Amino acid sequence: MTNASTTLPMLGRTMSSPHVVGTEGPHSTIPEDEFFDAVETGLDKIEEDRQLRVRLKYQSQQISNVSSLHSPNPETEDEIPQLSEDFGTGAQAKSHKLWPEIDRICTEQLTQARQGVGEDGNGWQLFADEGEMKMYRREEEVDGMVIDPLKSCHVVKGVTAREMCHYFFDPAYRNDWETTLEDVQIVDNVAPDTLVFLQTYKRIWPASQRDALFWSHMRRITDNVDTGANDVWIVCNHSNQNEEYPPANQGKCVRIYLTVILVCQTYLTPGKDSKTATRDDLTCKITYCSTVNPGGWAPATVLRAIYKKEYPKFLKRFTGYVVDQCKAKPIMY
Predict the structure, then answer these.
(1) Where does this one sit in the cell (predicted)?
(2) What's the whole-number mean pLDDT along residues 71-78?
(3) Number of domains the chain is built from
(4) Nearest alpha carbon to residue 23 among 227, 297, 331, 309
(5) In the prediction, which pLDDT does 244 show?
(6) Do the domain assignments include residue 302?
(7) Which of 76, 105, 189, 267, by CA, is between 20 and 30 Å from 276?
(8) Domain of residue 154, CATH code
């Protein structure tokens, strides 16, 4: 969904000579259908590699679990992360120069995420409908580049809003679910709930390689707008470029510009509360919104075809990963 949770190898203009052919760019000699096929094949290969890693990791965990039965002090991941009480409030980030922008963008994005789709002729088009998951987009272009806003709605059982946002925000887990990621660097550790990332994505021929520089903020929402929800958490990511951060388009990578918000609400079975609920009583409602400018140039038809295929796969992969990670752990609210 990166993050910067786009999870997609965003396409755009190569920075090389306009006479170079066989690569991405307005002077490329590759027909659009072949361009799409090549990128699709690259994405499929990445997904196959991810599935292999998952199987190997599962087998390793099975062996580890058997071994731990014979250990008097087995190590476990079943503990709730110990974070300060003001985590998710922005209290420790408010003194940073980015804070006014972070606070403003988070508020704006949350307001937009709460708005409905298909109302008032606002242009949202349903492009994926798979059970509880529905995905919408609006066709928009800037200087000929596709930047279609995306909005996804999903419902997942067995996890909380905080757990979903925890795995989306924390870079320790990102390689497990963001398949096109090559490298993640924290370029500014603003606060425990606010980080600035430089992410580099794998190059998929014939597309140019991409990177993204953005701040990411995780916050608990306490405005009581979401009636009936036990709690509400968000993660908001937004591209930023300060003079002390790595500049854009200086090396082999073309810079992606993005705004992303993940909004999660926890609902409990009637009659249950956070002390009595089990995972069977948990429902997490998810709204994921993103606007991504991939930079440079690529055929609009290719971009939209790839988005249509890859975004549903991303959301199912990520939410499935979180459910799997949480099922044997104590509940985190």
Answers:
(1) Cytoplasm
(2) 43
(3) 1
(4) 297
(5) 85
(6) yes
(7) 76
(8) 3.30.530.20
